[in-house]
Design goal:
It catalyses: N(6)-[(R)-lipoyl]-L-lysyl-[glycine-cleavage complex H protein] + glycine + H(+) = N(6)-[(R)-S(8)-aminomethyldihydrolipoyl]-L-lysyl-[glycine-cleavage complex H protein] + CO2. It is an enzyme of class 1 (oxidoreductase). Keywords: Oxidoreductase, Pyridoxal phosphate. The protein has a domain of 258 residues: Type I PLP-dependent aspartate aminotransferase-like (Major domain) (Aspartate Aminotransferase, domain 2, 3-Layer(aba) Sandwich), CATH 3.40.640.10. The protein is 31% helix and 9% strand. It has 13 helices and twelve strands. The strands form three sheets. The chain has a seven-stranded mixed beta sheet, with helices on both faces. The two termini are 25 Å apart.
Length: 525
């Protein structure tokens, strides 16, 4: 196989499951596609502009010839991105069962609303009198989030769930400081927690103590009580937890934390399982982030703009980060200065007010469902997960067989014992069948974990297609068809990549192949 100077194969490994290869690296309707820099024509442009009259430039004499920017005609550019979009799985293509991530459909109505000029063409530095509609929408979104959670305050600025955790712990830190209780240095986190929980606590400067788990996948109350003490600042508990189970002792968990003088941070990533049914404020929660891209259907993006608003209890509300929206005689305005009612605000989470486009999409989702519709979202998410569990459990072993699950079905790998197939192999074989793998090896408390979250947006027909594919694969694994799994995926454009190396040593600079026509590229790595 030939390799580019960047270490990427020039063609997909062409052999498919039947050992057939195409001559071009294309695969039926899916054409091979090079990087944009490799598509010839650095000296080409899709636009015919007159020569500029002035030769003054702010670029210190640097011209386009010095920086080998790719040049493509419009159809070439369109095809490039369409072809790239076909190289990866997408929620618009098929069920995307990534547990804990809640990959639900992104309604097109949300997109339509987000593109309205009054939301998309405004600037955060515009006078507030000219963006009253946008501020009203933020106020409406805040109202819905507070109502759905039963919490008195919400900070909209955080840009993701993890950023929301940081916001919540900074508020907790500020609240302890304000009470002169700064000696609290520890945060308790259950073993099954998402990695962002301990990471956030460490980032804020706390040390992390793990709480053990019971045999039925819940927080071990006795262990938690034993680890609480006057040096504990907060507990961080996910509910429903990452095993897809409701923490049935949640009220007692909150009581114990408060009795020890600690705050209760609830990881609300799984709020989609209880929205409209349970108000976290009633359970004694002090702070909780809500991933708008999980519960409220905004796109997850490619690491792009996200939003993770944080609801806060009475005790933490005074420390909420600026800005927030208030309304009065003169309409809506943003409270920006750390004075008056914002005197105790711990600071800011972002330069401005947060991700407007995501606020619009989430609000459109809320209004299009209504309160009763949101309750049904939770009910259908739980029903769909239980359907998947019921349809697979005779072949694939559930980690917690007793009783129903919440919005995700967790399986372990005990059923693969003796087959020579691992969780990773099985997940990779799902790609050949046209499905994104489920979440693998998480939560850590379950051996070879496979966490399946179908979400409420899948029809029964789609769930059946998915379950049939998994049943066929499971049967093949048990029948000893190891080769089907060990080399999988056979049909993806690229196969098993060294993801750790890619993350640890990313190659961020492109270099042309020695024979390329482009001029000498920039030297910097
Ligand atoms: C997704 C998730 C997070 C992190 O949220 P991001 O929006 O990805 O930063 C935290 N905890 C749990 C349980 C999650 O599922």
């Amino acid at each position: 196989m030939s390799m580019l100077s960047v270490g990427r194969p020039t063609r997909p490994e062409a052999a498919d499951a039947q050992g057939q290869a195409s001559l071009t690296g294309g695969r039926g309707l899916l054409q091979d596609e090079a990087l944009i820099f490799e598509l010839g024509g650095w000296d080409k442009t899709g636009v015919d502009l007159p020569e500029p009259e002035a030769d003054a430039s702010d670029l210190a004499g640097l011209t386009r010839d010095d920086v080998p920017l790719p040049g493509l005609s419009e159809p070439e550019a369109v095809r490039h991105y369409v072809r790239l979009s076909q190289k990866n799985h997408a929620i618009d293509l098929a069920l995307y069962p990534l547990g804990s991530c809640t990959m639900k459909h992104n309604p097109r109505l949300n997109e339509r609303m987000a593109r309205l000029a009054g939301f998309s063409d405004i600037h955060p530095l515009q006078p507030q009198s000219t963006v009253q509609g946008a501020l009203a929408l933020m106020d409406g979104l805040a109202h819905w989030l507070k109502t759905l959670t039963g919490m008195p305050a919400v900070a909209l600025p955080p840009k993701a769930g993890a950023h929301g955790e940081l916001c919540g712990l900074l508020a907790i830190h500020a609240a302890h400081d304000a009470k002169g209780d700064s000696a609290r240095r520890r945060v308790l986190v259950p073993t099954s927690a998402h990695g962002t929980n301990p990471a956030t606590a460490a980032f804020v400067g706390y040390s992390v103590t793990e709480i053990a788990q019971t045999d039925d996948g819940r927080v071990d109350l006795a262990d938690m009580a034993a680890k609480l003490g006057p040096d504990v600042a907060a507990i961080m508990v996910t509910n429903p937890n990452t095993c897809g189970l409701f923490e049935r002792d949640i009220i007692e968990i909150a009581r114990l934390a408060h009795e020890a003088g600690a705050y209760f941070y609830c990881d609300g990533a799984n709020f989609n399982a209880i929205v409209g049914k349970v108000r976290p404020g009633d359970l004694g929660v002090d702070a909780m982030h809500i991933n708008l891209h999980k519960t409220f259907s905004t796109p997850h993006g490619g690491g792009g703009p996200g939003a993770g608003p944080v609801v806060l209890s009475e005790a933490l509300a005074p420390f909420a980060p600026a800005p927030w929206v208030v309304s009065g005689e003169g309409g809506f305005k943003l409270v920006e200065e750390p004075a008056g009612e914002a005197a105790q605000a711990f600071g800011r989470m972002s330069a401005f007010h947060g991700q407007m486009g995501m606020f619009v999409r989430a609000y459109a989702y809320m209004l299009s469902h209504g309160a009763d519709g949101l309750r049904q979202v939770a009910e259908d998410a739980v029903l769909n997960a239980n359907y998947v569990k019921a349809r697979l459990q005779d072949l694939i072993t559930p980690a917690f067989p007793e009783g129903p699950c919440m919005h995700e079905a967790l399986f372990d790998d005990s059923w693969l014992e003796g087959t020579g197939v691992t969780t990773l192999d099985f997940a990779k074989a799902m790609i050949d069948e046209g499905f994104h793998p489920m979440t693998m090896y998480f939560p850590l408390v379950v051996h070879g974990a496979m966490l399946v979250e179908p979400t409420e947006t899948e029809s029964k027909a789609e769930l059946d297609r998915f379950c049939e594919a998994l049943r066929a694969l499971a049967t093949a694994a048990k029948a000893g068809e190891v080769d089907r799994f060990k080399g999988a995926p056979y049909l993806a454009p690229l196969r098993r990549l060294d993801e750790t190396l890619a993350a640890r040593k990313p190659k961020l600079a492109w270099r042309p192949e020695p024979t390329g026509v482009a001029p000498t590229p920039l030297a910097a790595e």
